[in-house]
Specification:
mainly alpha
Amino acid sequence: MKENVHTGLLPLLLRLSDETPSVAQASREALVACAKFLKWKKLKHQAQEENTEGIQKCLMQQGRRRVERYLWQSLPYLRDSQSSLRCEAIKFIGLAVRHYWDQREEKLNEICSGE
């Protein structure tokens, strides 16, 4: 169950920027609930404050494999119809790449090529 919750974190983070206010609010509430479920106080606080940069940094602390999964998850958002979501995906990818670069250059190149 925890793995499913972890898988939902990035989409919720990106949807905080949704152009529909009710979707953004529901995403924030769901992100707070996920943080409570995972007993992750720092994430909970960042989500309550709607601090997207803080949430991104929390996600980067989850280890290389999870960061890699988040990178793969973020790619489809680059083609989203909402520019706000595309922009948030780019910001996340930039942070993830900086975090990930030194650790796995070959795998990062594969992700960047979208293969």
